[in-house]
């Protein structure tokens, strides 16, 4: 999940106060000095921190709702479902399993290493930087923080400047829950992020666009810092001829238009079998009316339909729409826009030419292109031509078709006969592949994102049994080496 912020190279740099830079240095030094202490915290101490955060989520739920409504009119119910709920699940799962995750893991001994014992110890990577986006600013800030706290890492958080009310709330929340040498929030724009990225963090967790992800990775390379990059891309949806059209339409409509389409795992576009094309379009139009209102005026007044986050993103969505129309796309529903209120009507397009921008760029807004197909092979080939997506959705009852798509494509994650839900499952790793991201999160994988798995081997025997493997090599040495190699044959 990610923002559509512009890259630093697309903006004109402005001087940043030396006070901000010195504050970053001060907090970074505090975190470096405290990382050894946090490394040695017990399971119960880390769980206590997580429980404080969990309690605050519910105690201040009204503040969270108010902040997100102020930033882009997000419905309180949607806030609970997509912001508070996922973080609560993440914390609950971590609290229940943290003792097992932290415990050293014994591993077996191969015959060639007879006399030794080995284990894997799990130690925190250390100072961490979390750069979070605007589209789910609570979920995608506090979710990674759960992993850092569970692992025993100090963390500096840089929330998005595009959701100022929510970022201010996060700064206040963190200050009340954690001492500044454990977790701190540094607000600001891309210039603040740039200064932060110049520091030698031990791990960076970034959620955002692939373009900015590349900048983060370049900066991390200067210090050989490990990264978790949750990026995005064009997440395709396939509706084959065996699908339940009504069920598919309901789930696709919710997945696409929740949060005004500003979701990195939203169905970006839909490939539907020609035999179901008209029925799917009709059902999606019906679901839009059911969810948000009968017409554009009702939908504009709906308290359940969010707004585009800022004028820059509104203009981008408008240009994507106009480009598709200019190239011959058909508007099945939608087309209403209100720049003052940053309202874009839920829009469904058909007959979209492949060279239209909506088919080339991640849409990240409430525009849904629907493309009919007759050959599943060609759909798979089309998906494989582009970068590997963060999510791929398949609707259908034909298990051979489903297995064909799974075995002939690669995606960060996949839902069959639903959308978005894989993000909410704490036992499933979440992350991208290639252009859509690096690394995985959620549950155990979130803990491991901030953890170094350290192998430890203990030798129980003295030198004598191994002297024939040391120089000078003798005939006995060669015989023993040959024996060892024979044991390694399969």
Task: Indicate the topology.
Elements: H1 18-39, H2 43-59, H3 61-72, H4 76-102, E1 105-107, E2 116-124, E3 128-131, H5 139-151, E4 155-158, H6 164-177, E5 183-185, H7 190-197, E6 203-207, H8 210-221, E7 226-230, E8 236-239, H9 245-257, E9 269-273, H10 277-292, H11 296-301, H12 311-326, E10 330-333, E11 337-338, E12 343-344, E13 347-350, E14 367-373, H13 376-385, E15 391-395, H14 399-408, E16 413-416, E17 437-438, H15 444-449, E18 451-459, H16 475-487
Parallel strand pairs: 3-4, 3-6, 4-5, 6-7, 8-9, 8-15, 9-14, 13-14, 15-16
Antiparallel strand pairs: 1-2, 2-18, 7-17, 10-13, 11-12
Helix pairs in contact: 2-4, 2-5, 3-4, 3-6, 4-5, 9-10
Report on the structure:
The protein is an alpha/beta fold and 490 residues long. The protein folds into three domains: 8-232 and 441-452, Aldehyde Dehydrogenase, Chain A, domain 1 (3-Layer(aba) Sandwich); 236-431, Aldehyde Dehydrogenase, Chain A, domain 2; 460-487, no CATH class. Helix content is 44%, strand content 17%. The protein has helices at residues 18-39, 43-59, 61-72, 76-102, 139-151, 164-177, 190-197, 210-221, 245-257, 277-292, 296-301, 311-326, 376-385, 399-408, 444-449, 475-487; strands at 105-107, 116-124, 128-131, 155-158, 183-185, 203-207, 226-230, 236-239, 269-273, 330-333, 337-338, 343-344, 347-350, 367-373, 391-395, 413-416, 437-438, 451-459. Strands 10-13-14-9-8-15-16 form a seven-stranded mixed beta sheet, sandwiched between helices. Strands 5-4-3-6-7-17 form a six-stranded mixed beta sheet, sandwiched between helices. Strands 1-2-18 form a three-stranded antiparallel beta sheet. Helix 14 links the parallel strand 15 (391-395) and strand 16. Helix 2 (43-59) runs antiparallel to helix 5 and helix 3 packs antiparallel against helix 6. The longest helix is centred in the N-terminal third of the chain and has 27 residues, at 76-102. The radius of gyration is 26 Å and the shape is globular. Residues 1-13 have low confidence and may be disordered.
């Amino acid at each position: 999940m990610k923002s559509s912020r512009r890259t630093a190279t697309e903006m004109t740099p402005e001087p940043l106060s030396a006070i901000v830079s010195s504050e970053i240095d001060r907090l970074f030094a505090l975190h470096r000095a405290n990382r050894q202490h946090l490394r040695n915290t017990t399971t119960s101490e880390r769980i206590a921190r997580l429980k404080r955060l969990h309690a605050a989520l519910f105690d201040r739920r009204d503040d969270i709702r108010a902040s997100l409504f102020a930033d882009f009119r997000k419905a309180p119910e949607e806030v609970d479902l997509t912001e508070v709920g996922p973080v609560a699940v993440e914390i609950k799962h971590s609290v229940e399993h943290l003792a097992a995750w932290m415990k050293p893991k014994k591993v077996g001994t191969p015959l060639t290493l007879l006399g030794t014992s080995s284990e894997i110890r799990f130690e925190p990577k250390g100072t961490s930087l979390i750069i979070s986006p605007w589209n789910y600013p609570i979920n995608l800030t506090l979710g990674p923080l759960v992993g850092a706290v569970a692992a025993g890492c100090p963390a500096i958080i840089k929330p998005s400047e595009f959701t100022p009310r929510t970022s201010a709330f996060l700064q206040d929340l963190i200050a009340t829950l954690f001492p500044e040498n454990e977790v701190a929030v540094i607000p600001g724009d891309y210039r603040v992020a740039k200064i932060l990225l110049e520091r030698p963090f031990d791990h960076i967790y970034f959620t955002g666009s692939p373009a900015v992800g590349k900048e983060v990775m370049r900066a991390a390379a200067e210090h050989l810092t490990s990264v978790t990059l949750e990026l995005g891309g064009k997440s395709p949806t396939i509706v084959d001829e065996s699908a339940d059209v009504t069920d598919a339409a309901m789930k696709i409509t919710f997945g696409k238009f929740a949060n005004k389409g500003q979701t990195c795992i939203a169905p970006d576009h839909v490939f539907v079998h020609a035999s179901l094309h008209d029925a799917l379009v009709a059902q999606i139009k019906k679901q839009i009316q059911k969810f948000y209102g009968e017409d554009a005026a009702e939908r504009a007044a709906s308290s359940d339909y969010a707004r585009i986050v800022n004028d820059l993103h509104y203009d981008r969505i408008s240009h994507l729409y106009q480009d598709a129309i200019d190239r011959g796309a058909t508007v099945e529903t939608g087309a209403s826009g209100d720049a003052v209120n940053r309202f874009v009507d839920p829009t469904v397009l058909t007959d979209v030419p492949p060279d239209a921008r909506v088919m080339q760029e991640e849409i990240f807004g409430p525009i849904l292109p629907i493309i009919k197909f007759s050959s599943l092979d060609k759909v798979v080939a089309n998906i494989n031509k582009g970068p590997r997506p963060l999510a791929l959705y398949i609707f259908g009852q034909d298990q051979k078709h489903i297995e064909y798509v799974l075995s002939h494509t690669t995606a960060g994650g996949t839902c069959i006969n639903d959308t978005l839900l894989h993000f909410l499952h704490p036992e499933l790793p979440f992350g991208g592949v290639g252009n859509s991201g690096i690394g995985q999160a959620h549950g155990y994988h979130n803990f491991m994102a901030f953890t170094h798995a350290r192998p430890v081997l203990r030798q129980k025997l003295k030198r004598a049994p191994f002297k024939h493997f040391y120089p000078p090599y003798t005939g006995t040495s060669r015989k023993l080496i040959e024996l060892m190699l024979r044991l390694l044959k399969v």
